[in-house]
Each structure stands twice: as C-alpha cells, then as structure tokens.
C-alpha cells in the first residue's frame, strides 16, 4: 500500500509541475500584525529546531499571525507563543489531504512558506493546491509552484540556520536579536524534575559532563569500549560523568556505567532537553541533542558520520564546539586515541575556565 501511495504522490507532483505553476512576483508581501502566514516544516525534530530562529524574529519584529504545518514527530517544538499562534499537525493518510487543503484555504493565508531544502512531493502538493497570493520557497526543481524564490546558500559552506534565515529577505527584515539562536525552552515542570534528579543523584556544585551514547541510527553508536575509555579518562578531573541515552540503549548504558556512573534516560523530549540545559559539557554522536545544547550554549564535542555528502555537519550554532568526523558510513573505525587527541585540549580549556569562574 505504501508503494502505491508513493507512486500516486509522484504522479500528482509531475502533474502539478506541468499545470499548476504560479506567476512569479518581483515584490514580496507587505506584512503587519494582521498578516497571516503559513510555514510548512515537516520531518524530524532537528528540522523543526533550526527553523525556530526565523519564526522568533518574525514574531519579535512584525508580530504577525504565524501558523505552522508540522509533522507528528516535531510539532511540539513550535508550542511556544513566541514562535507561532497555531500548530496544524499533518496526517499522512491520503483521505485526509482534501480536508487539510480545505482547512488551509478557509484560513486565507497572506503567504505560504515552504521551509524544506529538498523537494517534497507532499509539501509541493499542499503548496500548489492551497490558495495564497504569495508562495515562497527555495530555488529547486519544483520552483514553478512558488511566486517568490529564495536563493539557497551553499550547504557545504553555510550552517543550516544561516540558510533558513535567508527567508528574512522575503519579509524585508534583518535579524536584530543580539543572539540569533535556536529557541526552545523546557517547561518549568521538566526543569523542576531535572533539578530534583540532580540533587538526588549528582551535585550541582560540580562540573556535570554529559555523555550521550544514543543517536538516530546504530551506525552512529561508538561502541561500549570507547565510552568506557572516555569514562576512565575523566577520572583525572573533578567532574560528574552522566551517561545519557534513549530507553532502547539502556543495556548499553549499563555496560558503560558498570554501576559506577549515574544514567539518565527519559522518553520525554522536554525532560531530556531540560537535562541538557543543566550540563556543563556534552559529548555526543547525535545532532538533535546538539541543537538543544546550542540553545543553552552548552560546550559540545561531537563524533560525526559525514558519509557521501558535502554538506556541513549540523554543529551547534552558538555553543563552543569541536569534533571528530569520519567520512565512512559508521563510527566503527573511529579509534579512541584519535578522538582523545582532539577532545582533550578542547575539554580541558572548558573545564579549567569553569573552575576559575566557579
């Protein structure tokens, strides 16, 4: 059934590109507080997080009504009045498409903005069939459906946030916030939960070093022996190591901990983010958690897979950061000594600065 749906969507996209083209405009929409915008950002949590600086700037400078069409995986990132006024969660079922288009048309948007870097059949279908004078997107192969094109910055040279912020040009604004950065704030309940966890299991008076062992795929698991070596290395410093993971990796975390190091896991993204906000340092192979570290300027060391792509890795936008990157498809051949050589000077600089200031 999924294959049939994919084929149908591809056929629809080709028909849209043939017949549903939009007249290009030389001007952009003139916005005020009564303007109503729809931003489309489906897919993963990280994709949502990197769009938050743009939405924040629009809210701060213009105060217009912002709607976000999000996915079931990332919608909660936008649940913030400083980012948007209403979240519409996309449903993948084909039967829901007509109802969604009808709902969007009833809202009568002044502009629709496709924030996706790549062409999405689903998003193209929605943009093409939703009525709006202005339809804005990056210059890509489905450009016929947009009234206004935003040039894409080179992904091999510019951070993903810099590329997203190019949409500011469509609204005639320039970022004025002193700190353009990812905007995500865990709830007070989540922060209280973490502060309680720290008081019972750690010490807020010491340097808390988070070691995240989980990533989006098994290819980015660095191996228990490597993490054990990292824990052993850290014994020479006055710190509290904390193993962090998702629930499926709990057994691996226990193997690394050997019942000597606290372990933190929680299925709630909000609670997990609250924990990151309390760290003094983060070691991680995963990019989603890196974006949260960036929001709170937590110094971060990453170990990354950059396989078959020239794009920049999604490093923290504002945090102090260093990394080891492999061009192979997994972290399997990234040796501990290779990481240690680069990690140790970076970590010690952060560590001794922290001691001096505390």
Task: Summarize the topology.
Elements: H1 2-19, E1 36-41, H2 45-49, H3 52-61, E2 65-70, E3 86-89, H4 95-107, E4 111-114, H5 121-129, E5 134-138, E6 148-150, H6 160-164, H7 188-201, E7 207-212, H8 224-234, E8 239-244, H9 250-257, E9 263-264, H10 269-277, E10 281-284, H11 287-295, E11 300-305, E12 321-326, H12 336-357
Parallel strand pairs: 1-2, 1-4, 2-3, 4-5, 5-6, 7-8, 7-10, 8-9, 10-11, 11-12
Largest β-sheet summary: 6 strands, parallel
Average pLDDT taken over every residue = 89
The total count of strands amounts to 12
Helix content: 25-40%
Key features?
six-stranded parallel sheet; 2 domains; 12 helices; 37% helix; 358 residues; Rossmann fold
Short description:
With 358 residues, this protein is of the alpha/beta class. 37% of the residues lie in helices and 16% in strands.
Can you describe what's shown?
The protein has 358 residues and is of the alpha/beta class. The chain has two domains: 2-171, 3-Layer(aba) Sandwich (Rossmann fold); 188-357, Glycogen Phosphorylase B (Rossmann fold, 3-Layer(aba) Sandwich), CATH 3.40.50. 37% of the residues lie in helices and 16% in strands. The protein contains twelve helices and twelve strands. The strands form two sheets. Strands 3-2-1-4-5-6 form a six-stranded parallel β-sheet, with helices on one face. A six-stranded parallel β-sheet has the order 9-8-7-10-11-12, with helices on both faces. Helix 7 (188-201) crosses helix 10 and helix 8 (224-234) crosses helix 9 (250-257). The longest helix is centred in the C-terminal third of the chain and has 22 residues, at 336-357. The chain is elongated, with a radius of gyration of 22 Å. The mean pLDDT is 89.
């Amino acid at each position: 059934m999924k294959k049939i749906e994919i084929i149908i969507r591809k056929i629809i996209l080709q028909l849209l590109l043939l017949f549903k083209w939009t007249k290009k405009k030389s001007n952009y929409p003139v916005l005020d507080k009564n303007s109503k915008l729809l931003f489309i950002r489906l897919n993963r949590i990280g994709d949502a997080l990197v769009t938050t600086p743009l939405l924040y700037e629009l809210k701060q400078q213009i105060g217009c009504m912002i709607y976000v069409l999000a996915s079931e995986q990332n919608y909660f990132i936008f649940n913030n009045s400083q980012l948007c006024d209403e979240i519409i969660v996309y449903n993948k079922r084909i039967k829901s498409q007509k109802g969604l288009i009808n709902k969007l048309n009833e809202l009568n948007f002044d502009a629709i903005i496709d924030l996706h870097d790549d062409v999405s059949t689903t998003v193209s279908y929605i943009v093409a069939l939703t009525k709006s004078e202005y339809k804005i997107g990056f210059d890509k192969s489905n450009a016929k459906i947009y009234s206004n094109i935003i040039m894409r910055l080179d992904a091999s040279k510019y951070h993903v946030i810099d590329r997203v912020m190019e949409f500011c040009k469509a609204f005639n604004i320039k970022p004025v916030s002193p700190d353009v950065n990812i905007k995500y704030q865990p709830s007070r309940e989540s922060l209280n939960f973490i502060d309680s966890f720290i008081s019972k299991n750690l010490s807020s008076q010491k340097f808390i070093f988070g070691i995240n062992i989980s990533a989006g795929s098994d290819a980015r698991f660095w191996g228990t022996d490597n993490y054990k070596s990292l824990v052993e290395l850290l014994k020479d410093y006055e710190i509290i190591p904390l193993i962090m993971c998702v629930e499926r990796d709990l057994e691996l975390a226990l193997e690394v901990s050997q019942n000597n190091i606290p372990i933190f896991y929680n299925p709630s993204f909000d609670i997990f983010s609250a924990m990151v906000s309390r760290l003094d340092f983060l070691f991680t192979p995963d990019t989603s958690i890196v974006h949260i570290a960036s929001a709170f300027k937590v110094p971060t060391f990453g170990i990354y897979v950059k396989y078959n792509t020239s794009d920049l890795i999604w490093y923290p936008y504002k945090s102090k950061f260093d990394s080891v990157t492999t061009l192979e498809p997994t972290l399997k051949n990234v040796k501990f000594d290779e990481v240690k050589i680069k990690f140790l000077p970076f970590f010690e600089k952060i560590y001794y600065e922290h001691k001096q200031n505390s």
